[in-house]
Write a structure and sequence with these properties.
The longest helix is centred in the last third of the chain and has 27 residues. The chain folds into 2 domains: about 40 residues, no CATH class; about 210 residues, no CATH class. A two-stranded parallel ribbon has the order 1-2. Helix content is about 60%, strand content about 0%. The protein has about 260 residues and is an all-alpha fold. Helix 7 packs antiparallel against helix 10, helix 7 packs across helix 12 and helix 10 packs antiparallel against helix 11. It is built from 12 helices and 2 strands; from the N terminus they run αααβααααβααααα.
Length: about 260
């Protein structure tokens, strides 16, 4: 498919952003020249939704895919324990449930950032996370694991962090431990933030550090055992090359023309 000619900024005051400069930035950022035309620029969310509804569908599929694990979060066949002595040395830190549960909302926020700045990366990010989860879900069917949960210790506590952790335990059964889907998506989030060229270095470092901490909270909340973490990292790294051709195929088939 022949790419439309790129607009060039030939002259102007470099100190001040002119309408032409804004127009060039939008085109180079992925917005079609037609979207910036006088008849379209003020149409608002309805106009964007009409042309980018496929991206909304993809984001919806990702959100729904998070629920597949809950359908499998029960004993199936032989249930294994991957607990090792190191797990007993890691203290329970109920306050880390705040960080643990911040994971999904932050992923949605980052997805919207990718959509604004680089829609191709947005699609690859979501498709890779969906595939990573599906790889884990398949594993749960054939290799189910259980996690030792300190129910009595948490349920008997009255502080706000223990209550949040208790709510997490009630919503999430103690199976489907290996690999950790939390860690899979943290690994992919760290990988893809460094692919976003528009992101400042401080943002890339902040996302990397924060999501690494999120991965560690899987064991300080006793939602996982230690071996679930390297398992999640491995599955995330496997999903990246597997999803790349799938993402290219999806873009060619469903995201054609000037609204890619």
């Amino acid at each position: 498919m022949t790419k439309p000619p790129q607009l060039q900024l030939k002259s102007g005051n470099s100190e001040k952003a002119s309408p032409d400069r804004v127009r060039v930035d939008l085109v180079e950022g992925g917005l079609s020249d037609e979207l910036y035309s006088p008849s379209n620029r003020n149409r608002g969310a309805r106009f964007y939704l009409r042309h980018y509804w496929r991206d909304l569908v993809l984001l919806t599929i990702f959100i729904l895919s998070l629920g597949i694990m809950q359908l499998l979060n029960r004993p199936m066949g032989t249930v294994h324990s991957l607990e090792i002595p190191l797990d007993n040395e890691i203290p329970l830190l109920p306050w880390t449930a705040v960080v643990y549960n911040s994971w999904a909302p932050l992923i949605i926020i980052l997805s919207l950032l990718y959509f604004i700045r680089d829609r191709s990366l947005f699609r690859r990010y979501l498709i890779t996370m969906i595939l990573g989860q599906l790889l884990a879900d398949i594993t749960f069917i054939f290799f189910q694991t259980t996690i030792p949960i300190p129910y009595e210790q948490v349920y008997s506590a009255t502080d706000i962090f223990s209550r949040l952790l208790a709510l997490t335990y009630r919503l999430d059964n103690n199976f489907c431990g290996f690999p950790s889907i939390h860690v899979i998506l943290c690994t992919l989030t760290i990988f893809f933030i460094w692919k976003l060229t528009a992101a400042k270095t401080w943002l890339k470092i902040s996302v990397t550090v924060y999501f690494a901490i999120v991965a560690l909270t899987t064991v300080t909340t006793k939602q996982h055992v230690v071996l679930d973490i390297p398992g999640g990292i491995l599955y995330g790294l496997i999903a990246i090359p597997l999803a790349a051709p799938l993402a290219r195929m999806v873009e060619r088939k469903f995201f054609k023309g000037q609204f890619r």
